[in-house]
Amino acid sequence: MTDNAERNARYGKYVEWISPKTDYTHSLVKAFVAGGLTCVTGEIARNLLGMIPGVTDEQAAVFASVLLVVAAIFMTGLGVYDAIARHGGAGSFLPITGFANAMSSAAMEFRAEGLITGTAVKMFSVVGPVVVNGVVWSAAAGVLRYIVALIWGTI
Questions:
Q1: Which contiguous run of DSSP H or E holds residue 128?
Q2: Among 7, 27, 45, 149, whose CB has the most other CB atoms within 10 angstroms?
Q3: Are the C-beta atoms of 89 and 27 separated by less than 8 Å?
Q4: pLDDT digits (tens, 9 = 90+) for 102-114
Q5: Buried b / exposed e across 113-143, counting CB within 10 Å, b at 16+?
Q6: How many structural domains does the chain have?
């Protein structure tokens, strides 16, 4: 073994030794609870908003989503969302609130660079890949559905 290979092997062992060990079951449960609580909160808001006379179920769902987004942005500004994310893991960034957190934290991080070149540009640098992936994969799913429908003769 060359000196470089030995050094790399020793370094790999060192990194493995100092890296924290993850309890995957515990992490999965915490992610499930965090994401579940977010969704339950949204459903409670939707049901409460649906009790208002003149508010349709669709309107209540939209208002509940808006409330979740606003709450996530507010909690990001206060630094609370970071604590939730530390404990909730993937459960905190998969719902709509995670997207709101990603946008608002990017905007906050670069606000010193100015309103346009800092806040707006960095905020939308997060949105771009999400929108592109959403459009591309939904179009691919539509084409696949169309092909399957052609093959099975349901069109």
A1: helix 121-152
A2: 45
A3: yes
A4: 878 777 777 677 6
A5: eeeeebbeebbeebeeeeeeeeeeeeeeeee
A6: 1
Domain that holds residue 85: 24-152
Is 13 inside a domain boundary?
no
**Percent of the chain at pLDDT exceeding 90:** 37
Residue 155 confidence (pLDDT) above 80 = no
Q: Is residue 8 part of a domain?
A: no
Q: What pLDDT, in 10s, does the model give residues 51-84?
A: 999 999 999 999 999 999 999 989 988 989 988 8
Closest to 88 (Cα-Cα) out of 38, 22, 20? 38
**How many alpha carbons fall within 13 Å on the CB side of residue 87?**
7
Give residue for tokens 């995957």: 24
